[in-house]
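Recap for those who missed Tuesday's class. We walked through two folding examples back to back. For each one, the amino acid string is listed first and its predicted structure tokens come directly after. Nothing is annotated here on purpose, so try labeling regions yourself before you check the end of the notes.
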Amino acid sequence: MMHLIYVVEDDENIRNLICVALKNFGYRPEGFETAEEALDRLGSIIKRGKEAYRELPSMFVFDWMLPGMDGMAAIKKVREMEPLKGTQILMLTAKDRETDIVTGLDNGADDYMTKPFGILELSARVRNLLKRTGSLREESACMAAGDVKIDKETREVVACGEKAELTLKEFELLSYLMEHMNRVVTRDELLDNIWGYDYDGETRTLDMHIKTLRQKLKAAGQQIKTVRGVGYRFLKEKE
């Protein structure tokens, strides 16, 4: 999935730089000069109902000092929008005092980055934010493939018509595989995204979770295929 990211920055050169960088890193950026423009766009999408929620961004990059409504006030507005309450927000600003950083994080930003900034650091922060779950959009909450149905909001899984009781890691593992349907997901990618980038345990942990997950999914466990020497793939349908 190509993540849509709203970039709200009044300096055109900086806004263009961020958008070009995000595009080069595989994201779909959309730039706004003012917070009002971004909020108006969000409001118009939400008014159309849940069927339009897929058009909402996966993440925001907000400058603090903007003409009109500042970034801090805009973040509070975003947090009041029900479909966006869990959406990740990065504040990217020249305000670099410790009190500014604390204020930004305490008032709704998920991460805080100061200018001038490095493109590689920006990419790393965006990537890490997008790993976090929390989006309340309908299309990402429920997924179905073959004999497996999953609801990310209620954490319920139905396999072959029966409810499957999964542990937290099993649920996160299944969710990630289904979100990347039919694609080979490497072992390192799964360990990084499910157990965390600093995980230094044995990869056998992953194999054991895959084994128990397959068992709990019963016949639908056949949809999880092992790609020897690489990782795993979740099939849309049983073979």
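Example two. Treat it independently of the first, because the proteins are unrelated.
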Amino acid sequence: MAEIQSLQVNGVDYDLDHQGFLKKRLAWNEEVGVALAASDGISLSDEHWEIIQYFREYYEDYNVPPPMRMVVRLFKKRFGEENANSRYLQQLFPGGPTRTASKFAGLPKPKNCK
């Protein structure tokens, strides 16, 4: 049997799967998001939070993370052409923007991500 991984935030243990994704999506809060990002060596900026909140809202509506082209479109409107590309999103969310943003947002790993 595999060892259950967990993340402790403010004295509360949150169960993670073997890839570091939160097992119970509804247990997520912003402090958990910060801790998940910190465990990957990332300090969340306003740009991160904008994407994380978009992912959470989209997931609530459609039960899947948003496609990357929709995220790029959102970024283009909010932050301009220079930041509206997958390279910039890759810098914000290393390891794959959709996968990593989903992880920090407390969502399940997207089906099309390894």
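Answers for example two:
The chain has a mean pLDDT of 86.
The chain has one domain: 5-104.
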